[in-house]
Design a protein that fits this description.
The protein has 411 residues and is of the alpha/beta class. It has helices at residues 33-45, 72-78, 91-100, 110-113, 127-146, 184-198, 217-222, 245-253, 271-280, 306-316, 333-340, 360-373, 387-390, and strands at residues 2-4, 26-29, 51-53, 63-64, 67-70, 83-86, 106-107, 115-117, 153-157, 201-207, 230-237, 257-262, 285-288, 293-294, 321-325, 328-330, 352-353, 394-395. It has an 8-stranded mixed β-sheet, sandwiched between helices. A 6-stranded mixed β-sheet has the order 4-5-3-2-6-7, sandwiched between helices.
């Protein structure tokens, strides 16, 4: 299989380095999902590299894709003149850190990922899962370098009901006291308001909770049938539910639709029945075979400095996505979930009001460009940060809890 990025024109004027001609040690920064795909691409090109570097201490001294993983300190000491290929989503912050350490030959993955020949691919991620991560990486990289305020993906949180109670859920489902389905009419009205302002986004995601529990899901999918302001429409499900026939038919009718399945092993008890149904209806799907989870954000008073708050906000919004829930828009998943439950103190900086149509386009543009201005949200004062900050803190996948969890009192 040869993968072609659907928008190569976005990167037409970017540098295309010849990695074979680099006359110094090449180090890949990021021994994770993006690093695994980048390693495959370099192997396909016959490019040698010396090692991976990663900030996660549990990876130091191990092997990744047949190469040693070293610490940032070891990188500086052993390879002070190395060329570094950033193989992680958080390009901007890593680039700045490398520059501060004296590295000058720094590359991104754009030229590797525009076209990928998956022949001989043997990394642990299945190909559709790898492609989604590649596309997210390219979108984040594009936004980092252009700083246009463009949003790559919109997540529609359509329900806080779920079939699981994962202790480390990034949407904090075990903390929800009154699970509910949000009205379909309001969800789609708010999406239209945002798209009318932005004009385009690459992906629309239905998620929750467990979005297959929403009774109006089929109608919401069908309402996008004639809307060409997105390239892809997807749903994120946990493999416990097989959709009803009407929902499957709505998915099959939408050529842009893809089902994203999180495979949690035995907990995803209907995974085989689900994939069989999707194959029957010829609905594309991806199985995300997680080997670990990132610990969800810690909630509490942080006492972080202004500088650290701004840096945290930049990292946590690096993937340039927008979360819509209960008539409000947020730039990070933690804020969307915790604010919706009243876990963070109420503050207008945390969200954009989707029901208020006054000067909405102007307000949305200012809101999204805050990713680059350092104007963090008040919620950052009470949050340790999510994947951008603590992605090295691994926890077992989908550990269940029966008890209702609670947030600490913040004010």
């Amino acid at each position: 299989m040869v993968y072609h990025y659907p928008h190569p024109e976005w990167f037409r004027d970017w540098d295309r380095p010849d990695f074979k001609r680099i006359n110094r040690p090449l180090i890949l920064w990021g021994a994770g999902k993006i690093g695994g795909v980048a390693a495959h691409c370099l192997k396909q090109q016959g490019v040698e590299y010396a090692a991976f570097c990663d900030i996660a201490s549990d990876k130091w001294g191990t092997q990744f894709c047949g190469h040693p993983v070293i610490s940032p300190q070891e990188l500086t000491e052993r390879y002070p003149n190395a060329a570094v290929l950033i193989t992680a989503v958080f390009y901007g912050s890593i680039h700045d850190m490398l520059r501060s350490r004296g590295f000058r030959e720094i590359y991104d993955c754009a030229s590797l990922f525009i076209e990928i020949d998956f022949s001989g691919y043997d990394f642990w991620m299945e190909e559709p899962y790898a492609i989604r991560n590649v596309e997210q990486c390219l979108a984040a990289l594009l936004e980092e370098k252009t700083q246009s305020g463009w949003t790559d993906q919109i997540f529609l949180n359509i329900t806080t009901r779920c079939s699981l109670r994962c202790q480390e859920c990034s949407l904090f489902i075990p903390y929800v006291t009154e699970p509910m389905d949000f009205p379909a009419e309001e969800i789609m009205e708010d999406l239209n308001t945002v798209l009318t302002s932005m004009g385009y986004t690459r992906v629309i995601n239905f998620y929750g909770g467990e979005p297959l529990l929403h009774p109006d899901l089929a109608n919401m999918i069908r309402s996008l049938r004639e809307d060409r302001r997105m390239d892809r429409i997807s749903i994120i499900t946990n493999g416990t539910i097989v959709p009803k026939e009407d929902v499957l038919q709505a998915m099959a009718e939408e050529e842009r639709f893809m089902v994203r399945i999180s495979d949690y092993g035995k907990i995803s008890k209907n995974l085989t029945r689900l994939t069989d149904s999707l194959q029957q209806y010829k609905i594309p799907y991806e199985v995300a075979n997680y080997t670990y989870w990132d610990r969800h954000s810690g909630i509490g008073i942080t006492n972080d400095s202004e500088e650290k708050l701004a840096a945290k906000f930049r990292l946590c919004t690096a993937c340039n996505v927008l979360f819509l829930i209960n008539r409000r828009g947020y730039m990070c998943s933690t804020a969307s979930a915790v604010c919706n439950m009243g876990g963070f103190p109420e503050h207008p900086s945390n969200y954009i009001d989707l029901a208020n149509k006054t000067d909405f386009s102007e307000r949305l543009s200012r809101f999204l460009k805050r990713r680059h201005t350092g104007e963090y949200k008040d919620a950052c004062r009470y949050c340790s940060g999510n994947h951008g900050v603590q992605f090295e803190e691994k926890v077992p996948v989908a550990v269940q809890t029966k008890e209702l969890l609670t947030f600490p009192k913040l004010i």
